[in-house]
Amino acid sequence: MAAEHTVKAYDEELDRMNNAILEMGGIVEQQLAASIASLARRDDELASSVITEDKRVDALESEIDQLAVRILALRQPVAVDLRVITASLKVASDLERMGDYAANVAKRSIAIQEIDPIRLTHAISRMAGITQGMIKDVLDSFRDRDVERAMAVWRRDEDVDESYNSLFRELLTYMMEDPRRITACTHLLFIAKNIERIGDHATNIAETVSYVVTGTPVEEERPKGDVTSFHQASDETEATAP
Amino acid sequence: MTDDTDGMVSLMMEEAGAPAAVPAAADDAGTEAPAPIRMRARDVNVFYADKQALFDVDIDLAQNKVTALIGPSGCGKSTFIRCLNRMNDIIDICRVTGSITLDDRDIYGRDIDVVQLRARVGMVFQKPNPFPKSIYENVAYGPRIHGLARKGRELDDVVEHSLRRAGLFDEVSDRLQQPGTSLSGGQQQRLCIARAIAISPEVILMDEPCSALDPIATAKVEELIDELREHYTIAIVTHNMQQAARVSQFTAFFHLGELVEFEATEQIFTNPHDQRTQDYITGRFG
Fold it and tell me: Is B270 in Cβ contact with A215 (below 8 Å)?
């Protein structure tokens, strides 16, 4: 981090904002872990707690917004300080969305309890594991202003997308085999999609970290692994990728 | 080229072989051709007796652009701007080396008439300093002694035109015979700007022109600077970094007599290259 400002209160405000983001990230990381655990263990109470936690995430986002507006108005930040503030606004909004997706996973895990259990959650757990690692690493990269680590997260999202593709195909197969599974499988499909979206937001944060440090946006095109939108209903058994 | 009246003639700018010290402005990239360079400083060193105040400064002033000079007190920015119209000549112990050209002519050359030079490179100071004369006379004085306009009608036109360009005419048109010192601080400063432009300079130097003004008067002068650049090449020294960001296209950051960074203003204030620049503009100077 750069040297301290001549005006100490400025540093305190920036620190507060930074800490709020890390706190928010910590909660979101836990939310995702807990929502997946609630799905695996069929634990309604744990799922409910994830949904409740979302209020804290929203409150933190609002606190970060207010702090940013305050600093912009009172300190007229420039250069790296300005980038940190615009980045914080973006990261807070990414984290807020990630929290929403985790809460959605929790809601669906409650809905799914009543239905015939399918032994498929381990594929989702694996996908969630990668995503959780991404959240942790991207938050560390934000804290340490570490571009390399951020870009490693950015590239890892391809693994999440690939897991999502194979899960998508697997669930389609289940549904075709036994139409009674359609409801549960649809929930699982949405859960997988939510996790995949969480991974996307983690890559957004990675790009933001890179911008804070270098001052230039990430130019490279991110490898897009999610090809399910090209999947045709008639391609019953064929692979989705061309 | 020894006749000093040549100084009054705007020489055609040549794309001389000297290396360009002017950075590409972000808004100039691609579409617009880069603005021609009017003043070019190379390896400028300034000494006050034994003490060196500037070290090897290279700066270009581009036509119709505002170049802001920023930096902490004592960094040499005022010393530098005063080299551009040889105001440092009046300080006995001051010595300037290196080259400074106006339209490729060395302004420290033997053939240069300093009075003519200062007519081409005008200056506005920190504190408004109108002459103890009427508003009209403040503006008319320069054109009259430089022989630019003599007769009543002609002089009236120059005065009105200059006051209009300085955004002051409507405020003072009914009291041109009142003393210049009767105006408010902001009006006095615009009167000084009108006085500077009355003799049709090509370059205008401003040394902290707003530091003695309130925010509204400052905003008017800043608006004026932006309008003036359509006709002139402007260099401004300012302590106010936001002001540099608001009014200039290029910014030069000085520190301890050294030119640390000279870039498009947008670049300086969003992503400066040098850590010292970053520390200064973000308020981290220790």
Answer: yes
Full residue range of the structural domain in which residue A28 is found: 8-230
CATH assignment at residue A59: 1.20.58.220
Which of A80, A82, A211 to substitute to test the interface with B, most B CBs within 10 Å?
A80
Instruction: Kindly list the distances between the CA atom of residue B212 and the CA atoms of A22, A24, A45, A140, B218, in Å, as whole numbers in the listed order.
Output: 44, 46, 67, 47, 9
Residue A63 in this model has a pLDDT that exceeds 50:
yes
Tell whether A79 is within 8 A of chain B (Cβ): yes
| Predicted ipTM of the assembly | 0.73
**Residue ranges per structural domain of chain B:** 34-130+203-281
Query: Which residue in chain B is spatially nearest to A76 when comparing CA positions?
Result: B242
DSSP-derived secondary structure for A177-212: H-GGGHHHHHHHHHHHHHHHHHHHHHHHHHHHHHHH
Tell whether B52 is within 8 A of chain A (Cβ). Answer: no
B53 backbone dihedrals φ, ψ, rounded to 5°: -105, -25
Give the pLDDT of residue A2: 60
Place of tokens 């507060």: A16
The third-level CATH classification (topology) of the domain covering B34-130+203-281 is Rossmann fold (3.40.50)
Number of domains, chain A: 1
CA distance A11 to chain B (A): 10
Global pTM value: 0.79
